[in-house]
Structures are given as structure tokens and as C-alpha cells.
What does this fold into?
Amino acid sequence: MSHPSVKKVVLAYSGGLDTSIIVKWLQEEYQCEVVTFTADIGQGEEVEPARAKAAAMGIKEIYIDDLCEEFARDFVFPMFRANAIYEGEYLLGTSIARPLIAKRLVEIANETGADAISHGATGKGNDQIRFELGAYALKPGVKVIAPWREWDLSSRDSLMKYAQTHGIPVEQKRGTKSPYSMDANLLHISYEGDLLEDPWAEPEADMWRWTVAPEDAPDQATYITLDFEKGDVVAIDGKRMTPAQVMVHLNKLGGDNGIGRADIMENRYVGMKSRGCYETPAGTIMLKAHRAVESITLDREATHLKDELMPRYAKLIYNGYWWSPERKMLQAAIDASQETVNGKVHLKLYKGNVIVVGRNSDTDSLFDESIATFEDDAGAYDQKDADGFIKLNALRLRIAARNRAGK
It folds into this structure.
């Protein structure tokens, strides 16, 4: 069946089996020109081989973009200003990468005159939603082709047969191949499928790629100091770094100390529960440190309001609404709160733990030792004032208690 309305499509292309099959399927099913786009967002694997694979399949326009700095600066760091965490555990490593990929897909579609975009996300997952909500928000009239929702290739065997029939090279196993579905970027690496589909089964020790087991981490603690400016980490141990450099450095330190593992049963937007395991060393360190610097520089009520808004903000990112007006509105409020979040945090990394051992701010600290001290405060705080404060706040409680006693 041909689709004459589509003349050119931009495909989010990894160079793996699934997206290589999608290239051929688009060429045959839609009779259209395919443009491939491969994003380097710090996944730790070579992306250049995708160029040769795409060229071998007749692709003329091939985009391979290093987006690491943009990813860290414009997506990860703004999210961490909010202390975002989904369902109390998930640091949103996959979720936050999708709006950037959607943005670049749309940009390439505009640059090349393509009238459609395509992706390899399945019809069961969250990523299809994230890619497509982002694309429609940025290019309302774009056509989205989601092969997993259209074709009849429903199993690994059917994919392999398609590849053989159409002469698509399939890499042979070399050594031990991971049975898990994995996704990696600067913020995290995730694992799903195989053994993990049993919620009771403990992950195999050799599954983890980025972190040592906490019990195998060094017996000697690692101490680091992070400098914050307006809520963002700008230096580690006095050395200024770009956002991506910060994350690379903290991933190494965190991984060496067994920091950042999580085993989660989460609620997908499409309705099902799914289990995922994650390694997020840099993110785990950044979250702890950011809350520590906020604790000394951010007003109490601003802190509490941020904590109330955070679950909604995290849910928006998880569900694919990064480009929505409500996320942008929340971001504006969050960013405004970070004007005074400047200072240093001293951390101890030890066997899977991130321990705050010090925090200060030379310019924006709201901590006043002369008031908080247990020693003589020289009249800085009149403790008698607490009497009226307590009685006013107890008034409604006392009235209710009297009413109960009179019944």
C-alpha cells in the first residue's frame, strides 16, 4: 500500500535492528525519501557507525548531532532546579531526553522540507507519547508515522525474517549480549524486560553497567564540593565546568562509589505498571546537593510551595508535556525561586550514599547563627514572643476541644 501524501520523512535512527528495519519499511510502505537523525546525548556508545549503516540503505541526508551540552543545559539542569522525581523514586532519565529529540526531529523536518517524522517507540510505552506530544506542540501540522502501531511485525522472529528477506545486515552476537532493553544518556541508563518482568526477581549482579555494587565500593569515602549559581552546579572542587562536563564527572564519581541504583515499579501513562531498573549517579548526587543549598538560601514558604508543585511538574515531564504551557509556567516560577540559590555544598560519597556534610552561601544565606544559637543570643530573639504565637495558633484547637468536652 502506498502513501502518496508523504514525500519525505525524518526518522529518529539509532542504527540498531529495529530502526534499520523501519528505514526499509518506510521506503517500501510509504514510497518516500527517508532522512535519518541520530542524537548523541551521552549514551556512551559510538554514533558514527549509524552513518555507514544509513548510507548503505540508500539514505542521502544523514544527521548525526552532538546534543550533550544542549541536553544538560536546557533540559536536565532546569528539571533539577525543581528537584523533580516521579513517584518518589524515578529521576526521569528517559523522560527528559525525549522532548529534545522531538525538537530536533521537527527542526530537521523544517530544514529538509520533510512532511513527516517517524520513531521506533512501541505502542505499549511512554516514549511514543513523549515524541509525538513534543512534535505536535512544535509543528502542529506534522504527520507522525509510528511503525509499531501500523505494521504486523509483532515479534523478534518476525523482525529477523523481515531483515533477512530485505537484506538488512544483522549484527552477530559477540560474547555475551545483554537480554535487557536499555536506554542511556548523560543522566542515566535504564533496564527493562527479561528477568525484570518478574517483580520478585532480584536483578542479576552483572546487569549493572555504570555503578559498582555498594558493598563493593571503596572503604574510603570520597569528599567533593559543588558550587551552585542560581540553582545550577557550575563547579566541582573549585573547577568550573559546563553542564555536560559536570554530569560526566559526577557519573564517574558516583559510579565508583556505588551511587544511583534504583529498582522501580512505575505507572506508565498508557495505564500499565512496568518495572524498570536505573542507574543515575550524577542525578542522585545533584538532587541531594541542590536540596542542601536550597535549605540555606531559599525561604521557608518558597521551599514548601516548590515541594507541593514538584510532583505535578515531574508528572508533566514523565507524561510528555515538556512543551506544554503549564510546564513552562511552572518552570518560570521555579527559575525565579533560584535567583538566590547560590552557594557551596560539601558531600561525602560512601558505599551508595550521598551524605551532606556542609553547606554555605557567602551572599544569600538565610541562616543567622545569632538567632539560631542555643547559647546566649544577646537579645536577637525574644523567646517570650513564642507564647502569643503558640496561643494564637492553638485557638481553634482549644475551641474544638471545649466543644467536644461539652457534649
Remarks:
- The chain has twelve helices and 14 strands.
- The mean pLDDT is 93.
- The radius of gyration is 25 Å.
- Residues 385-406 form the longest helix (22 residues).
